[in-house]
Write a structure and sequence with these properties.
The chain has 16 helices and no strands. By secondary structure, the chain is mainly alpha-helical. It folds into two domains: 177 residues, no CATH class; 176 residues, no CATH class. The relative contact order is 0.10.
């Protein structure tokens, strides 16, 4: 490594301003930063207030996401294998079937579940990273910016929010929209006002709803439908909401249920939250306030009741383990760029997201999940919260000092 480091240092002046390969500096810097640490300070948000740099922040987030990735791979395969065995099917079609023939489709086999799930998750993740890297590289080359590790987090978050059956060309379109129109047009890393991963998913949801909603998209077996827990709640009879479920609360908590690949396991999200909190990467105020807002709103609807809408009958503790609430609360709402930054602003920001997430989930039966839209709307209001908090602090100081 010393030899490689010395070689990179010697070649560096050719890529510096005025060098022969000046325009290729972003590519050189990305490779050099990947291999070795960076000594420069950040020039744009999110700003760092201690010795940790942006690379280590994003690395910590990636580590925190690993439990969700592992669960996404295993559960995707588990759901598919369970359906194949229960229905007496031969296995998946095409090249996936050829690979699965080597180990079989046994839902009791950890290896079989992981391999089958990886055959769906990895193509989605690879397409996301390849297409996203092309856009990142293009804009960095034009602007002369350095490559940022933030895209590694954005790409992984986006892939984890998708169903396993989504066409790969839609994955490419989604990540392209999010990176270009929610990030790069505003100046790139640190200048986006909303979460690019969520913007990508929202675009796909509204542009191609057939591939993002319904019962047939959550289980990676052609022609097989399997409703999510929220879908089962929505289809229940008013007053008998829990009777429509074919899963237990513990299954929902562990994540052995159909849903977006990385969002089903609340346990995996809690492990990620623990890592982010003990390292100080994610603000605890946002997590706490989002949770409080969600529980308060869920309690209101539950005790209010409804003779028409079965979603009113979802107990508050069930809201925490179904849908993408836990995933969004831990990894999306706490985005260091698009979230609020002042302590009071973070409380208001989190409360808004928590309340809106449950309100959209319950009050709109046609759209039984609201965390995505709630966070995007929270991103829009975050600068406003910070502005009023800062102005209030300025006024108090002026009065205090005469």
């Amino acid at each position: 490594m010393k030899f490689l480091n010395k070689m990179m240092e010697q070649a560096g002046h050719h890529f510096a301003p005025g060098g022969r390969f000046e325009r290729w500096y972003p590519l050189f810097e990305a490779f050099d930063s990947f291999l070795f640490g960076a000594s420069q300070t950040t020039k744009a948000a999110p700003h760092i207030r201690d010795s940790i740099d942006l690379k280590r922040i994003m690395t910590t987030v990636l580590i925190a996401l690993l439990p969700c990735v592992c669960m996404a791979v295993w559960n995707t395969g588990y759901q598919a294998n369970s359906v194949i065995v229960s229905m007496g099917l031969s296995g998946p079609d095409g090249w996936r079937g050829d690979i699965m023939a080597l180990v079989g489709c046994d839902p009791k086999s950890f290896l079989s579940n992981c391999l089958h799930g990886a055959l769906y998750f990895l193509p989605i993740y690879i397409v996301t990273m390849v297409v996203g890297s092309i856009w990142e590289g293009l804009f960095n080359m034009i602007r002369g910016h350095e490559f940022s590790e933030a895209f590694l987090v954005t790409g992984l978050l986006f892939a984890l929010t998708l169903p396993p059956t989504i066409p790969l060309w839609q994955v490419a379109i989604g990540i392209s929209f999010g990176l270009v129109f929610a990030k790069e047009v505003f100046g790139g890393v640190g200048r986006n006002f909303m979460n690019p991963a969520l913007a990508s998913r929202a675009f796909i949801y509204f542009a191609y709803p057939a591939q993002m909603t319904g019962d047939a998209v959550w289980t990676a077996v052609d022609g097989v439908s399997g409703a999510t827990a929220l879908g089962q709640f929505a289809a229940a009879q008013p007053g008998h909401t829990l009777d429509a479920l074919n899963i237990t609360w513990m299954q929902a908590f562990l994540g052995t249920i159909p849903g977006s690949m990385g969002e089903t396991s609340t346990l995996a999200c809690l492990i990620g939250a623990f890592i982010l909190l003990i390292t100080g990467i994610a603000p605890w105020r946002i997590m706490a306030s989002t949770l409080i807002g969600a529980l308060l709103c869920a309690c209101y609807f539950y005790f209010q009741g409804s003779t028409v809408n079965p979603l009113y009958g979802i107990p508050p503790h069930w809201h925490l383990v179904v849908g993408g609430l836990a995933f969004g609360l831990v990894f999306m709402a706490t985005d260091p760029v698009s979230a609020a930054h002042t302590p009071v602003g973070q409380w208001l920001y989190g409360l808004l997201i928590g309340v809106l997430a449950i309100m959209i989930r319950v009050a709109n039966p046609a759209y039984p999940e609201g965390i995505m839209l709630a966070i995007l709307l929270g991103n829009v209001f975050a600068p406003l919260f910070d502005y009023f908090v800062i102005q209030a602090n300025i006024k108090r100081r002026m009065v205090r000092h005469g």
